[in-house]
């Protein structure tokens, strides 16, 4: 765990480096060796013991000096390996070079050529497994976490930007209507691209708010909802219509959208909203939640805002969260903020195998989440009123790698032990949402219920495209956006060919 350093101190350090390196406006002629020697700028954050009890954003964002210094670390590699690690292919050296010269609007425009959600991606993308993993600087330092902090620079530019020029450049109307199912990152990206191309786009959303997991799943302290709303407003300014509380598969089927409502094409981006359970004894007790339900109540339904929201939330003292991904970290840190005295992450492998972002695991530890590693619940214990009173767990050891490439957890026989717990949250991942596929037999799915698409994002049903978590299984924001861009190109080509198959 790193020692906490005040934002003001980090800011002063960046000012000093900027002065020492003589980085006035427009001048940017450092040698590669000098760039590589600049220390990575730490992200200012709320102190752990304070933030563990509020819903405000944990990471506070770089100051201008920190951005200039961090951007000056970029070596401007000619082959730009970082770009290959970005699912939407952002011109990373291009926007960083502009940022290093204080051209913040220009830098944001470069990002917006490839991504419409920079404020979201700058906060939640697993950069250390994507762009930063391939960054030359990280390779020199032998640690992807020491690469250029690409996402932190992106976040600064998105938060400070006033420019939406690429979003504004709209083509004349084509007269074609496209329906989009779901307003998560994938649906929003496709909507933006298609609206810019002059198509008439309508998004149908089951909830009363747009944003998908970014509003109902990822907590306020990691991604403030006002940021998602701002991105949605930009889209509406482009002419995209959003119809809320509208359930495709119930209110209207895909066939009806096309045959009765006159949509020329449909993009299905309804995500992976079906929580997985462990199928162990006691999972139906009062006090057991799926992470989806727990997070939706706190985020979308604002249960944390006790004075203004009517959403009830189970009162918990000792919470166990099962899982080791981002969803588990979010649920555990939310439970702490909702007043729990003790929160455990129960995970059957070690921290090295955890799928959660490194930064989120570190933040969770700093806030006091207890990690019970190489441990898994075998049953949930109830009291005479049918409420959770504890869990029984088994200890595990790591064996040879399984099909996921990670070491296989193996039970240690006779290792049973019990923990006193009053709330269990299962965060084992999500399966594809079955509502649309269940009512549209024409859509071919794989054995997990994910929709099968071709290289243009088109499904087995003519004119119907799909992408994001419903195709990939539970994935990431940027992968969902990447699919959205591919499908937008595919839909445009399909519509331009007068509805001829591709
Ligand atoms: C708690 C949590 C934390 C996460 N943290 C991260 C992270 O840190 N970084 C990261 O990159 N990824 C993270 N992810 C994953 C990421 O959020 C998803 O991969 C991404 O949101 C998928 O986008 P999508 O557009 O495919 O679907 P979604 O975001 O799931 O959006 C689907 C939308 O479709 C709507 N919908 C569903 N069915 C229907 C229907 N029948 N009719 C109309 N509308 C419908 C839903 O209400 C929803 O708004 C996290 C996921 C969760 C659950
Ligand atoms: S790989 Fe790293 S150093 Fe090279 S251009 Fe990309 S961000 Fe800059």
Description:
With 502 residues, this protein is an alpha/beta fold. The protein folds into three domains: 7-160, Orthogonal Bundle (Fumarate Reductase Iron-sulfur Protein, Chain B, domain 2); 177-272 and 432-496, FAD/NAD(P)-binding domain (3-Layer(bba) Sandwich); 274-429, FAD/NAD(P)-binding domain (3-Layer(bba) Sandwich). Helix content is 36%, strand content 15%. The strands form four sheets. A five-stranded parallel sheet has the order 3-2-1-4-16. A five-stranded parallel sheet has the order 6-14-7-8-9. Strand 1 (177-181), helix 13 and strand 2 form a beta-alpha-beta unit. The protein starts with 6 loop residues before the first helix and ends in a 6-residue tail after the last helix. The mean pLDDT is 93. The structure holds flavin-adenine dinucleotide (FAD) and iron/sulfur cluster. The site of iron/sulfur cluster (SF4) has 16 residues, from helix 5, helix 6 and helix 10. It comes from Oceanispirochaeta crateris. Its EC number is 1.4.1.13. GO terms for molecular function: glutamate synthase (NADPH) activity; iron-sulfur cluster binding. Residues 65-95 form the 4Fe-4S ferredoxin-type domain.
